[in-house]
């Protein structure tokens, strides 16, 4: 018994520095950001005069913030949906025991190994909106192939330019969802598939009635992770198109408000709203996961 208590004390002391660091640099800074969001701090000199919820009310009534929310919803819908669909298709293809599976698996996963900044730099050239003598990238390819109807302005398209930004994001993260789905497919027993085929189920019915429902926990996990990424997207948009109002998202608004405009109270308000939006996704998922593990 004494030995067990000693081991617990040693284990606690080993993780204590990490606990202290998290309390200070994560939760401490979150608390400080909440306090700043409730203040009137504008400019370099701190001003902690109480403002209450005034910053939140004014932000929700801000037309620019409404554009940010709209762009985030469009980007999230296309990004998450595209990654799930493309990842599932690639996983199903790799699950057919094709020759060279290892090569294709590495090929699909490779984009995930690079950062959004690198992806943005490459796709900035591929999605160059310039036409005429300055045409390049995908527009040049479409032009040479006689597919003029596909030539477009990409992220420079009014209203829907943010949809083009989802393309490089899908390209980078679809390999991640492919790996998740492939692991789930390989975990399904072959005997279950054979039993379904013996009962007369075709391949479409097999995937629709058996395999896809079994993959629903993986789909949920992928949606949470991808949704979390999409809500905080910043570097990809800046690398592709810079800071433009039609492509504005809360993270860019927060950066410009805080570091370019020195409106620290409003910047903290945006950051807290971002944190709450992420928490809306993550906390229910963690609760569901813990509850499921406890039942098992």
Tell me what the structure shows:
- This protein is mostly helical.
- The chain has a single domain (67-295), classed as MetI-like fold (Orthogonal Bundle), CATH 1.10.3720.
- 73% of the residues lie in helices and 0% in strands.
- It has 13 helices and no strands.
- α1 runs antiparallel to α13, α5 (116-126) packs parallel to α11 (235-241) and α7 (161-187) runs antiparallel to α10.
- The mean pLDDT is 89.
Overview in brief:
With 296 residues, the protein is an all-alpha fold. The chain is 73% helix and 0% strand.
Layout of SSEs?
Blueprint: H1 2-37, H2 54-60, H3 63-94, H4 101-109, H5 116-126, H6 137-144, H7 161-187, H8 190-198, H9 203-214, H10 216-231, H11 235-241, H12 250-260, H13 264-295
Helix pairs in contact: 1-13, 3-7, 3-10, 5-11, 7-10, 10-13, 12-13
What's the name of the CATH homologous superfamily? Answer: MetI-like
Number of domains: 1
Total helical elements: 13
What's the count of strands?
Answer: 0
Structural class computed from helices and strand pairing: mainly alpha
Biggest sheet architecture: none
List low-confidence stretches.
Answer: none
Q: If classified by CATH, what would the architecture be?
A: Orthogonal Bundle
Look up the CATH topology.
MetI-like fold
* Average pLDDT number: 89
Beta-strand level of the residues, as a percent range? under 5%
Helix content: over 70%
CATH class, named Mainly Alpha
H/E series? HHHHHHHHHHHHH
């Amino acid at each position: 018994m004494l030995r067990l208590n000693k081991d617990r004390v040693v284990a606690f002391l080993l993780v204590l520095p990490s606990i202290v660091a998290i309390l200070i640099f994560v939760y401490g800074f979150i608390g400080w950001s909440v306090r700043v969001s409730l203040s009137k701090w504008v400019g370099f000199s701190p001003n902690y005069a109480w403002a209450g919820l005034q910053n939140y009310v004014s932000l929700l009534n801000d037309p620019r913030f409404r554009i940010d929310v709209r762009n985030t919803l469009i980007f999230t819908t296309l990004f998450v949906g595209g990654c799930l669909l493309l990842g599932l298709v690639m996983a199903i293809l790799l699950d057919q025991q094709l020759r060279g599976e290892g090569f294709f698996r590495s090929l699909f996963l490779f984009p995930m190994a690079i950062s959004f900044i690198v992806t943005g730099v490459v796709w900035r050239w591929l999605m160059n909106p310039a036409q005429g003598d300055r045409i390049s990238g995908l527009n040049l390819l479409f032009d040479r192939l006689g597919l003029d109807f596909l030539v477009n302005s990409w992220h420079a398209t009014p209203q829907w330019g943010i949809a083009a930004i989802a393309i490089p994001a899908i390209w980078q993260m679809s390999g991640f969802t492919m790996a998740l789905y492939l692991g789930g497919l390989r975990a399904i027993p072959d005997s279950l598939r054979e039993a379904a085929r013996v009962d007369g189920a075709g391949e479409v019915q097999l995937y629709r009635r058996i395999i896809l429902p079994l993959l629903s926990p993986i789909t949920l996990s992928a949606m949470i992770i991808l949704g979390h990424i999409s809500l905080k997207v910043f570097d990809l948009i800046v690398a592709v198109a810079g800071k433009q109002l039609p492509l504005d998202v809360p993270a860019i608004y927060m950066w410009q408000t805080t570091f370019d405009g020195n409106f620290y109270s409003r910047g903290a308000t945006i950051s807290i709203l971002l944190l709450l939006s992420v928490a809306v996704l993550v906390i229910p998922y963690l609760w569901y996961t813990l509850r499921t593990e406890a039942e098992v």
